[in-house]
Write a structure and sequence with these properties.
The protein is mainly alpha-helical and 288 residues long. Helix content is 55%, strand content 6%. Strand 1 and strand 2 (7-9) form a beta hairpin. Helix 4 (129-140) packs antiparallel against helix 5. One of its GO terms (molecular function) is DNA binding. This is Ndc10 domain-containing protein. Residues 25-175 form the Ndc10 domain.
């Protein structure tokens, strides 16, 4: 099954699955349970999670969809039977080169370094480069310290492991951006090996593509409007503050000038009174 835009659609885009249900549904998260990570010395249950990403080039859901599509439709690996738990206990999400075990760290690190070298990226991190960028992003977006620690998987107590979901929801949403999938990815990566397959040329997919493109455009317009408002509001607030500061300064100057004028009038009045008193005194002396 390949999930396209929050709706499970069979790989052949069967009309029964796509039928008349809404094209956009609730948002799903990929959740990974880790019980023996290299930094987990106490056997605590730890979690990793990811939503669909607005940028299709870094969307984890899209990456998994392409990975599975490649396995079962390009490499023609036999699809496994999931009728009972025991049917998939011995399956590996990321297998080694021979397929009889999970990928080991040295193989993973080698692949990471090859990809980074191909993309011209120079970093002191290889397998942890994504985690480093994620922490920087959630920190810049003001996510709480508790949820930052969950993203880092630095603590996961017994209550969180047994009774709570223990997923950093706010941090996960910040790291996403939401929406998009293969329809948009084709615009960004038209040279991908999967597009020549017949499945992406039939009428059912074309109809899905048209309806999804319309939905994305409508949602993107709202998203951009919100972005503009978020960018504009601080500017408006700053302009209003500058205006109020200028008005206060002008009022203070006027008050200061008025006070100076009042002081000058009082001084002249006092001088006139003194002169008048002196004049009366002189006249009195002359009349004696």
């Amino acid at each position: 099954m390949v999930e396209l835009n929050h709706q499970q659609i069979e790989a052949d885009f069967s009309k029964h699955t796509i039928s008349r249900s809404p094209i956009i549904k609730n948002c799903f998260a990929i959740v990974a349970t880790l019980t023996f990570g290299k930094t987990n010395d106490d056997g605590k249950i730890q979690y990793g999670s990811a939503l669909r990403h607005r940028n299709v080039e870094i969307c984890p859901h899209g990456a998994f969809a392409q990975y599975f599509f490649s396995l079962f439709h390009h490499q023609n690996i036999t699809f496994s039977n999931f009728s009972s738990c025991c049917d998939w206990y011995d399956l590996y999400l990321f297998s080694n080169a021979t397929g009889d075990g999970s990928i080991i760290y040295s193989e993973q690190a080698k692949i990471y370094k090859q990809v980074l070298r191909y993309c011209g990226v120079h970093s002191s991190k290889s397998t942890h480069i994504n985690k480093k960028n994620a922490i920087n992003m959630v920190t810049n977006e003001g996510v709480s310290e508790d949820q930052q620690r969950q993203v880092r998987r630095w603590d996961s107590d017994r209550i969180g492991g047994c009774y709570l979901s223990d997923l950093p929801i706010d941090a996960t949403k910040v790291l996403a951006g939401l929406l998009l999938d293969l329809v948009e990815l084709k615009k960004e990566c038209p040279e991908s090996f999967i597009w020549p397959l017949n499945i992406f040329g039939n009428d059912l997919y074309k109809d899905y593509k048209e309806r999804l493109s319309f939905a994305i455009a409508a949602n993107d317009k709202k998203f951009k409007m919100n972005q503009h408002l978020e960018a504009l509001l601080p500017e408006v607030a700053a302009a209003m503050k500058t205006g109020f500061d200028s008005m206060n300064a002008m009022l203070n100057i006027a008050q200061s000038q008025n006070q100076s004028t009042l002081d000058a009038v009082k001084k002249i009045e006092a001088e006139n009174r003194t002169m008048l008193a002196d004049s009366f005194l002189q006249i009195s002396n002359m009349l004696r």
